[in-house]
Specification:
Bound molecules: (3S,4R)-3-hydroxy-2-oxopiperidin-4-yl beta-D-xylopyranoside
Shape: globular
Number of strands: 9
Order of helices and strands: HHHHHHEHEHHEHHEHHEHEEHEHEHH
Strand order of the largest sheet: 1-2-3-4-5-6-8-9
Distance between the termini: 51 Å
Number of helices: 18
Radius of gyration: 21 Å
Oligomer: single chain
């Protein structure tokens, strides 16, 4: 009997706010070769896959929402990474509309990505847009340490597996996000309160990185190894258990282990406020870390500095973005670009115009540095952006509106790629 092509019983409730949930029936959508024989165009095939594939409820505390992976039948079908690489699901080539963001970026020799966020994962329209407009997927939800190992030694990759499956089926390059982040919000209690000695903490870090990267080697192409490094008075958060135990050396340890596990993966040091030396800036800190990693032989053509790129519409773009990125002396990626429109007055049209202009200025300044080939947006759909879900209701930071309709900033991004196409 042929499998249902489109699972029409997709749960309709929006997952992002409920803290409790009935276990949702997960029905992995097996991608059958037979679908192609029945004359589906590849694009039509992807549309169906994007619209009907297994869904899941998720938000930052993903495990409080998402089906207990140990009971969801679908999870077992993803219990080993080879499911991600099996011919029926590891579809890498992708036919996209010639005017899609991804096609325009590729013609400019660039990639354009977005984070694969659990908040939207339940929405067919989101899956259709992400699967057809972007060619890099950043898997954050599902790869937080608290998602993967809530209890020491009990690993659960089911959410990350589903994100990776969707990304692979959509022909995306995958970025694992992030192996280490000192933000307590995303670390399990056993790690935060484990009172490990320095050698024990090093072993815990190396083991974590090795287990995750080994599982996804050949499926996830690049990794944010350390996000927002160190604890400094300047950082919003005051916690960093890795820094507390190992000092600055934890960053070297993390990159050392990551490089050992996968010599071919691109390894990324990611940070915020590092696109300018003006105002709150971590440029100096990141330069110090790059020098340390370089001295340890860990900076090569498969290393990049992640420029998160959370800019504001309410203030002019700093004038030193191009020179700042050039000054690092390494490749960069724009890793989490959005434009916070909080405190920007005006009609929706006026605010959209300001956002579009600021974004274009920023993309052009980054490109002028000659260091960046990868442009990644942090979320599509304003209402489920990390800023609006984090208490900034007027942020409107993404290139798609609350209903996943394009905003002028999307057209500006397409124009940017067109303009740099030689
Ligand atoms: C955001 C995530 O997207 C949200 O899910 C989470 O609730 C808060 O953090 N800098 C980062 C990203 O490094 O990991 C943050 O992502 C946004 C700011």
């Amino acid at each position: 009997m042929s499998e249902p092509i489109l699972d029409t019983t997709l749960p309709t409730d929006s997952p992002e706010v409920s803290q409790s949930h009935d276990e949702k029936k997960l029905s992995a959508l097996p991608i059958k070769h037979g679908m192609r024989k029945r004359g589906f165009s590849r694009r039509h095939f992807f549309r169906l896959a994007a619209a009907g594939a297994a869904t899941l409820a998720a938000n930052t505390a993903l495990h409080s929402l998402v089906e207990n992976p140990r009971t969801a039948h679908a999870a077992s079908s993803l219990s080993s990474p080879d499911k991600l690489s099996s011919p029926s699901t590891n579809i890498t080539e992708k036919t996209r509309d010639q005017n899609s963001l991804a096609e325009l970026a590729e013609r400019a020799g660039k990639t354009v990505g977005v984070d694969l966020t659990g908040w939207w994962f339940n929405d067919p329209k989101w899956r259709e847009i992400v699967g057809s407009e972007f060619n890099v997927g950043a898997i954050e939800h599902g790869l937080h340490w608290s998602d993967i190992e809530p209890e020491q030694g009990k690993l659960d990759f089911s959410i990350a597996d589903r994100m990776a499956k969707f990304g692979k089926e959509s022909g995306m390059k995958l970025r694992g996000y992030h192996l280490l982040w000192g933000n307590q919000k995303f670390l399990p209690d056993w790690l935060k309160n484990g009172n490990f000695s320095a050698p024990e903490m090093e072993e815990v870090i190396r083991n974590h990185i090795s287990q995750i990267m080994t599982r996804y080697r050949g499926s996830i192409d690049e990794w944010v190894v350390v996000n927002e490094p160190y604890k400094t008075p300047l950082r919003i958060r005051s916690d960093d258990v890795f820094f507390d135990k190992l000092g600055k050396d934890y960053v070297r340890i993390a990159f050392d282990e990551a490089r050992k596990v996968d010599p071919n993966a691109r390894l990324i040091l990611n940070d915020t406020q590092n696109h300018s030396t003006t105002g709150l800036s971590f440029v100096h800190l990141d330069k110090e870390i790059i020098a340390m990693l370089s001295a340890a032989g860990l900076v090569n053509d498969k290393f990049a500095l992640g420029i998160q790129g959370h800019i504001k519409g309410s203030s002019p773009l700093p004038q030193d973005v191009t020179e700042t990125l050039k000054g690092y002396g390494v490749k960069t990626i724009l890793s989490e670009c959005d434009v916070d429109m909080t405190d920007v007055a005006g009609s929706p049209q006026q605010r959209n115009s300001i956002q579009s202009e600021r974004l274009a200025q920023f993309l052009e300044a980054v490109e002028a540095s000659g260091t960046c080939s990868d442009y990644t947006f942090w979320g599509i759909g304003d209402k489920n952006s990390w800023l609006e879900k984090g208490g900034k209701p007027d942020a409107d930071p993404t290139i798609y509106d609350d209903n996943l309709n394009p905003k002028p900033a999307l057209a500006a991004t397409k124009a940017f790629f067109l303009n740099i196409t030689s």
